[in-house]
Structures are given as structure tokens and as C-alpha cells.
Design goal:
mainly alpha; 24 helices
């Protein structure tokens, strides 16, 4: 009963639009106050322990890497390269949208950063080229889901720290699912472009002045590759350093930040004032995430004290002993949770509950991690939370209902990818096992 009251209190606070961290923290503080055997010092200790983790240092560093990519104009070089390569293919801007999300994901690790950075440039360009507004917005939102799967993924760090698994192993577990999602989106684009060919695409690629930058599609591919090559080395530094044993994931994040700053100053596209702005934005975003982590740590401790994981495990085991049916129920549950909670908070609450049950059903923790992350990031494009929806509406000036309608057709490729990742564990496990994680 106590556990149900805590969950109900949290949901009520979320419904009145209280920030997620406080919606979790306030019921827990009331719980601590009511029970005389628990002191406030214990609550403070749990809160501090939640953020006292070396791997979590990678979170602000990868956030800063993403901000630096935009602030230093490095994403523009990638866009110019892709536009020069895809410029004569029917539906070129749509393919550029997906491919740029794949490339940008190696440096950002967050769906919101991808949606904001690429949506501001590519959605206006696609609209000028004759693409339907809803399709342009839906594709940008769906392709931003690649970021949290592809390393360096911020949700992957949160899951790995909470579940006690290798950060590097979970990084590489997401690579094939991310590429699969990109491939499924490209198939969707192919059939859409055949039915609704864009008008005037080639003419509009040289003029995208509605966005903050102006990528062009008639650059020489060789020159564009040379210009983008230093930026393309960023994932080599991050992943190569981890695989080669040179860096831990946290140290690789620090190396990526230093490399991005050096590139920005060498290209003279990053000023001291711009760097200061990046630091401010990084601090603000990190503060929000770490406050959620701290509050979720206390919330998770309370749930564990009230034997929440055992109750969930007993309930599921009464329903089924089939691991595939268990995964179906997990998917349904997480899709609902993703509609209500931001992925970081959802992971911190759900991992301690679901992981012991998954292990009982012999579901690999790395496989469960990829399934959970993909489920929860789909929640970023579904109301009522749907942060990516609000970001796309903000950076493009399009009303929220139009953004939501444009996103609906892309739930099909996302659902196909989710089913494949859920029921074909090798998609998540082959690469980390091959790399001996």
C-alpha cells in the first residue's frame, strides 16, 4: 500500500507539471519524515550516493561535445559532405537527414540535441525542396532516435551505472540496432519518395537561408570530404580509444571535448564567448540530469525498501514463465512509462525493478538495456511529455499538432525496429561479444 501511495503521489505531481526530480523527491521526503526509524541523514546519503559515480562524469562531457559540434559549425561540414554525396539521388535531403543523424550521433548521444541541431537546418531545407512539412518533421524526429542508441549514448551511461554493467559494452550493443533503425527509415523514405516525389529539390539545396546555416548540395565531394575529415575523426578518437584500451569511456569523453575545442579554434568558428555559452548550456543541462539522478537514487532506495522489485517479479512470474511474453509485457510497460517520464528518470526508476526479473528469464542485461533505451526514447516523440516534439516545434516555428501528425507514420518503422531488437538478441549482443565486452 505504501508503494502504491508513493507512485500515486509522484504521478499526481507530474500531472500538475512539477519537474520530474521534485515529483520523485517530495514523496520520498514525506516517507522519510513519517517513518521514525529513518533519519534525514540516510536520505541525504542516498541522494549523494546517486551522483557519486565516476562513469557519470562522462554525461556532462558528452553533452558538451554535442553543444560544441553545433557552436563551432562542425555539423555544417558533415551536412555539406552528405549533400555533395546524395545530391543527385531522388529524395536526397531525406537520406541526408537520416545519415546526418547517424554521423551526428557519434558526437552528441542525445535525441534532443540531434533534433534541435539538425531540425533547425534540414526541416526548412526539405520544405523548400517540396517535401511535405509533416514528413520533414516526422523524419527528423524519428532519425533523432538514433542518437541515444549509438555511442556515446547518454541513456546508455545512465543504464550501465544503474545496472552495474560495462559502459563500453552497452555502447557497442547499441551500434547495430542504431544502424538497423537508420536502414528501416531509409526503406520508408524510398517508398514515400516514390509515391510523393519532392518538387524542386535540386534547386533548393543551394538556398536554405531559413535555417541558421546554409548547406549546399553542389559542393565537390572531394573538397567536402577534406573539409569534414577532421570532424569524422571524432568517433575514431572516442571508440578507438575505448577499444584500444587507451581511454575509459569517461576519459574518451574528455578527449572528445578537448578535440572539439581545438577544431573550433583552428577553424576560427569558435570564439571565447561561444565557448563560454557552451559551458553555460552544458552546466544547465547537466544540472537538470544530475538532479533527476539524485532524486531517483532516493526514490529507487525507497522502492527497494518497500520490496517493489520482488512484488513486480512475483507478479510477472505468476503471469508467465515465457521469456518472450515477458519481453512483450516489458515493451508495453516501457512505452507507457516513456510517455510520462523523461528517459533518464525512467531508467533510474525501472532498471532496479526490471533487471532482476530479466535475469531470472535469462535475458542478457546488455540486451535489456538496448530494449529499454529504445522503448523510452520513443516516448520522446509521443505526448504528453514528448520533448522532441516541443523542440522541433520550437526550432522550426511549426505548431505542435502539425509536428505530432507528421510523427504518426514514423511510429511504424520505429515499431518494426523495436520488435526486431526485442526478439533478435544477437542484434544487440553480437558486437560486444565479438569485442570481448
Amino acid at each position: 500500500m505504501t508503494l502504491l501511495l508513493l507512485l500515486a503521489a509522484m504521478l499526481i505531481l507530474l500531472a500538475i507539471r512539477l519537474p520530474v526530480a521534485f515529483a520523485m523527491l517530495l514523496p520520498c521526503l514525506v516517507y522519510v519524515y513519517v517513518l521514525p526509524e529513518i533519519t534525514l541523514g540516510v536520505a541525504v546519503q542516498r541522494i549523494v550516493a546517486g551522483v557519486d559515480s565516476f562513469p557519470l562524469l562522462a554525461v556532462p562531457l558528452f553533452i558538451m561535445t554535442g553543444y560544441l559540434t553545433n557552436a563551432a559549425g562542425l555539423a555544417d561540414r558533415l551536412l555539406r559532405l552528405l549533400l555533395s554525396l546524395f545530391g543527385r539521388i531522388p529524395g536526397s535531403l531525406a537520406y541526408v537527414n537520416v545519415t546526418s543523424s547517424v554521423m551526428f550521433s557519434w558526437m552528441s548521444g542525445a535525441a534532443i540535441a540531434d533534433a534541435a541541431g539538425l531540425g533547425a537546418v534540414l526541416v526548412p531545407a526539405m520544405r523548400k525542396s517540396g517535401y511535405d512539412t509533416g514528413f520533414s518533421l516526422g523524419l527528423t524526429g524519428a532519425s533523432s532516435m538514433i542518437g541515444p542508441l549509438m555511442p556515446p549514448s547518454i541513456p546508455a551511461i545512465i543504464y550501465a551505472v544503474t545496472a552495474g554493467v560495462s559502459v563500453g559494452g552497452l555502447f557497442f550493443a547499441g551500434v547495430i540496432p542504431a544502424l538497423l533503425l537508420a536502414g528501416v527509415l531509409c526503406v520508408h523514405i524510398y517508398f514515400h519518395v516514390r509515391r510523393h516525389p519532392p518538387r524542386g529539390e535540386s534547386e533548393s539545396q543551394s538556398d536554405t537561408t531559413d535555417g541558421p546555416t546554409t548547406p549546399v548540395g553542389n559542393d565537390d565531394p572531394g573538397a567536402a570530404l577534406v573539409a569534414a575529415l577532421p570532424v569524422l575523426l571524432t568517433p575514431v578518437i572516442i571508440l578507438g580509444g575505448i577499444l584500444g584500451g587507451v581511454f575509459t569511456p569517461t576519459e574518451a569523453a574528455a578527449a572528445a571535448v578537448v578535440y572539439m575545442i581545438l577544431l573550433g579554434f583552428c577553424y576560427r568558428t569558435l570564439s571565447i564567448a561561444g565557448l563560454f555559452d557552451v559551458l553555460l548550456r552544458t552546466a544547465a543541462t547537466t544540472g537538470v540530469i544530475m538532479l533527476i539522478v539524485a532524486a531517483a537514487s532516493l526514490f529507487g532506495w525507497v522502492i527497494a525498501r518497500e520490496q517493489g522489485p520482488q512484488m513486480v517479479a512475483d507478479g510477472l512470474l505468476r503471469l508467465t514463465d515465457n521469456p518472450y511474453l515477458f519481453l512483450v509485457m516489458v515493451n508495453v510497460f516501457l512505452l507507457v512509462v516513456g510517455m510520462l517520464l523523461e528517459p533518464t528518470a525512467a531508467l533510474l526508476i525501472c532498471v532496479p525493478v526490471l533487471l532482476p526479473v530479466a535475469i531470472h528469464f535469462q535475458v542478457d542485461p546488455l540486451h535489456l538495456g538496448v530494449v529499454m533505451i529504445l522503448n523510452l526514447v520513443i516516448g520522446l516523440i509521443t505526448p504528453p511529455i514528448g520533448l522532441v516534439l516541443y523542440v522541433l516545434g520550437s526550432v522550426t516555428g511549426v505548431s505542435l499538432p502539425i509536428v505530432m501528425r507528421g510523427m504518426v507514420p514514423f511510429l511504424i518503422p520505429l515499431g518494426v525496429t523495436l520488435l526486431a531488437v526485442t526478439f533478435i538478441p544477437a542484434l544487440s549482443l553480437w558486437l560486444p561479444r565479438w569485442l570481448a565486452f
